[in-house]
Amino acid sequence: MSDVSEVLTGTAMIALGSGAAVQASDAYGGAMMTVAGLLGLLSAQETERAAAWRAADIAAMRALLPEVAVPPAADLTLTALDAEWAALSDVLIAHHAAVEAASDDAQDRALLTFYRESAARREFVWPQ
Questions:
Q1: CB pairs under 8 A, 24+ apart, for 8-13?
Q2: Which residues are CB-neighbours of 18 under 8 A, at least 6 positions away?
Q3: What is the pTM of this model?
């Protein structure tokens, strides 16, 4: 766990506990603390894997679109990776429309597999 993720997780756990304690005397304040705690836990998850899921998606999209003219990210910041991901996504969506129009079932299945795998990489685990 990274330092940022660890701080977010610890802060979130405190907010969750405080939310439960405050709930007895202030329903709104307790609910807001609970929501802040949940958001902190979800943020910690995103912090841990933010670059990894983007890099995996980018590699998979480039494999599905070998002729794509989208330049690679200039650096490994999330802003640069997001820009590359967005550009590739636009090309992928247009490509998928062409695949469907051509009734290319094999390529359609490959694209649908990518969508499922991409969603799984970004899935948040709801705290129990």
A1: 8/40, 8/41, 8/43, 8/44, 8/47, 9/40, 9/41, 9/44, 11/40, 12/36, 12/37, 12/38, 12/39, 12/40, 12/41, 12/43, 12/44, 13/37, 13/41
A2: 33, 37
A3: 0.77
Tens place of pLDDT per residue across the chain (128 aa): 668 778 888 888 888 888 888 988 999 999 999 999 999 988 888 888 899 999 999 999 999 998 888 999 989 899 999 999 999 999 999 999 999 999 999 999 999 999 999 999 999 887 76
The one-letter amino acid code at 75 reads D
